[in-house]
Amino acid sequence: MNVLRYTAFSRHPAGGNPAGVVLDATGADPQGMLEVAAEVGFSETAFLFPLGDDDFDVRYFSPKAEVPFCGHATIATAVALAEGHGPGTIRLNTRSGLVTVRTRQDPSGMTATLTSVPPRVVALPTEDQRALLDALRWSSADLDPSLPPRVAYAGAWHPIIAVAERERLAVLDYDFATLEALMAHRGWTTVDLVWRAAEKVFHSRNPFPPGGVVEDPATGAAAAAFGGYLRELAVLPLSATVTVLQGHDLGRPSELTVRIPEEPGSGISVTGHAVALDVAPG
Questions:
Q1: If residue 252 lies in a helix (H) or strand (E), which one and from where to where?
Q2: pLDDT grade, residue 108 (50/70/90)?
Q3: Model's pTM, two decimal places?
Q4: How many helices (H) and strands (E) does the chain have?
Q5: The domain spanning residue 59 has which CATH number?
C-alpha cells in the first residue's frame, strides 16, 4: 500500500498531528492495515476504499488497534484527495456513520471541514471520575466547576475533564498502564483535558494510551465531541465558533476550529489545515 504522510490542524510540518493516509486500500484486511499503521507509527492511519462519485468507506488504525473515527486523519485524507483531484466535498462511511468533508483552498493553504455524526453526551459515573483522576494523578480540587466532567461522543467516546488553571493542564504525568486499562474497559478513545482561556478559546490535551500513544497533539474527534458537550451544557450562546489550541505543550502547536450549530442533535463541524510531510517526524 502507498502510504502518504500528512500533518493535520497545522499550516506547517512542524505542528499538528501526523497521520498516515492510504487513498486506495482495496483488498486490505484488518491485520494488514494494523501492521501498516504500526509500521507508520503515527497515532492513526486512515485507509480508504473508493466506492465512486466521491464516496468512500474508511477505516482508521492506531499502531495497536482499530478506532471507529479519527478527526485528524480525516482532515489529512481530505486534503490529500483535494491536492490530487481538486477541492470539493467527499462522503466518508466510517464505522460510526456518515461523515462529510468539504475542502477548499485559501491563501494559507488547503483546509478541510468535517461534519460529525450526531453527538451525544452522558454522565461520567463517580467511580470512573475517581479512577480517571487517580490515573492522571490529579484531584477534584483541580477541576473547573463551571465545566463539569462528562463523556461525549461524535464518532468516538471521550471523557471531558476541565481544569481551573492552565498550570494544571501543563503538567501531564499520568499512569500509562492504569489509564490504558480503564479506557480500554470503558471504550474511550482519548481523554479530552481542557482549560478555558476565554469565552470561545480552549486549550486541550488528549492522552491516548489505548492506541499506544502517550498524547495526541491534535484530536479532531475529541474536538467534535467537545462541541457537542458545549451545546448540551449551554456553556455559551449558540450558534458559536470556538477555537481549540492543542499540542503546544508537546512542541507541535495545533489549531482546531469548531462550529457548533444551535439545532440539537446536529453534527459538529471541525476545520483545520493539513500539509504533506516529506519524511516522518522524529
A1: none
A2: confident
A3: 0.96
A4: 6, 17
A5: 3.10.310.10
